[in-house]
């Protein structure tokens, strides 16, 4: 059992029947009244950010979570299958807990966040940027680079994103998995 004095960024706590990580906190000691800790917490499973104020000395229950490297294997009717890179155990995850599942390609390294006591997978996080090949896009016309316009492109994973007009079919690009947007061309 911990108290509000133990709160720090990144700490995972059990709160309102859910797991939350502390995104931001501020210890406040007003001139009149008791001290308190104002926090912003992110739900580990849903990603929703809430604000809460704890009185100083309030007991909180910490939860231990672990990040483990996994490798993406394949997708079937049961879900997405991953292999733990250290133990070689296979785990199947449903699409709801995978952030940016449409950017997964075979053999890609990801991090799966586990609740350590329950051995339950909570989320699956892709790297911030992935390199993917464009399988189809309309050809670019010479001289179309003066404006900031985009066109639709289909990636090797089947995902569709907007890319600048000068990008052609067969090129490799870097995609931001957090926003699903084009980042840059890969040489």
Model description:
The protein is an all-beta fold and 187 residues long. It has 3 domains: 2-62, SH3 type barrels; 65-125, Beta Barrel (OB fold (Dihydrolipoamide Acetyltransferase, E2P)); 130-185, Nucleic acid-binding proteins (OB fold (Dihydrolipoamide Acetyltransferase, E2P), Beta Barrel). It has strands spanning 2-3, 12-15, 18-28, 36-43, 49-55, 59-62, 65-76, 79-84, 90-93, 98-99, 109-115, 120-125, 129-137, 150-155, 160-164, 172-176, 181-185. The chain has a 6-stranded antiparallel beta sheet with strand order 1-6-2-3-4-5, with no helix packed on it.
Quick take:
By secondary structure, the chain is an all-beta fold.
Write a concise keyword list for the protein shown above:
187 residues; mainly beta; SH3 type barrels; OB fold (Dihydrolipoamide Acetyltransferase, E2P); 3 domains; six-stranded mixed sheet; 17 strands
């Amino acid at each position: 059992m911990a108290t509000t004095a133990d709160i720090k960024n990144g700490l995972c706590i059990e709160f309102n029947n859910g797991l939350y990580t502390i995104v931001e906190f501020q210890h406040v000691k007003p001139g009149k009244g008791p001290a308190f800790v104002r926090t912003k917490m992110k739900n580990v499973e849903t990603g929703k950010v809430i604000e809460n104020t704890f009185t100083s000395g309030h007991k909180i229950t910490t939860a231990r979570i672990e990040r483990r490297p996994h490798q993406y294997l394949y997708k079937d009717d049961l879900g997405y299958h991953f292999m733990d890179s250290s133990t070689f155990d296979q785990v199947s995850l449903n699409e709801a807990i995978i952030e940016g599942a449409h950017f997964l390609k075979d053999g890609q390294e990801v991090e799966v966040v586990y609740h350590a006591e329950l051995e339950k997978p909570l989320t699956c996080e892709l790297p911030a940027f992935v390199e993917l090949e464009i399988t189809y896009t309309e050809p670019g016309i010479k001289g179309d680079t003066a404006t900031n316009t985009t066109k639709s492109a289909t990636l090797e994973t089947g995902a569709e994103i907007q890319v600048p007009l000068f990008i052609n079919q067969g090129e490799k690009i870097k995609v931001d998995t957090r926003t699903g947007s084009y980042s840059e061309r890969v040489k």
